[in-house]
Write the structure tokens for this entry.
Amino acid sequence: MKSMLKAIVIAIFLVALLAFAFFTKAPISETGFTVYFIDVGQADSAVIVCDGHAMMIDGGNAADSDLVYTFLKKHNINHLDYMIGTHAHEDHIGGLPGALNYAKVDAAYCPVTTYNSKAFGNFVKYLAQQGVKITKPKPGDVISLGSASVKFLAPQKAYGEPNNTSIVVKITYGKTDFLFTGDAERESEADILAAGYNLRSTVLKVGHHASKTSTTYPFLREIMPKYAVVSVGRGNSYGHPDPDTMSRLRDAEVTVYRTDLHGDVTVTSDGNDVSFKTQKNAGPVPPRSDTKAQKTQESSSLAVESSYIGNANTKVFHRPKCSSVGQMNPKNRVALNSREDAIARSFKPCGRCKP
Ligand SMILES: [Zn+2]
Ligand SMILES: [Zn+2]
């Protein structure tokens, strides 16, 4: 009789344990680092999750509120440590009320606290309902998201034009870095460069939907991204992404993902390297479409003759065996006799082959 009672108690305990495991929702992500670029058409929205902490950078247009709400619900993200509205334009802050309808936000950052639009008014109103006031970040400020750090790089000063007021952040997780540039254009890019930050990043969220006025060569050369994500709407009236900007990215040998082609883009980092998953099954846009055999042949013949190879467009120089040399457009290739020769001709060393 006693042993039967014991068995019943154990059985009840096991059932209770199972029920507890079943009904307790798993944390969003126990460890590791993930960036979700949400496909919000001609707009920007990203959610970053690290060690169970989450932040949101932009929320798409007002019409994307439902989409953003559903995304957070699906991923069980009901708490955001931070919310960043990069600038006051509707395609960045318009959908944030949708996120505020689902998630409790601890702190919100924006370059302005007032802006004359219905979308911005709603953003402020929904924040106020949670008792949150907008904080204007100072460049150089660092906040932490789990074991990742988030550094504010811009705006460096006040600008008349909203795009240049964009908050720019560099997020570092282990040896991987992610640069989010909002809609910052060349003026802000130049000021960020002048401030002398280390911009080197694994992944670049391309500025201003890859418009012509962003992603200048000097900026790109300092970032040296391996990958870039362009948030852009199919057939938009702005002509984004701009063909010249896309060709600058190709010349810099960057592998590009686009929300208009790939849908939602998810990047995970293990602290050493990143991997991409896309909603739609379009392959990444490779740096170059030239035939591989031709590239290899041309680069190897040049390799014999010169010590280093420069890229006339990006002004970066490489060791002849660097993978970037094979991907370089042959017309941009410059033979360099020595490291000194390269530096004297204002080439900068490649971050990958470190010549
Ligand atoms: Zn925009
Ligand atoms: Zn904008």
About this structure: Confidence is low (pLDDT under 50) at residues 20-27, 289-305. The chain has twelve helices and 19 strands.
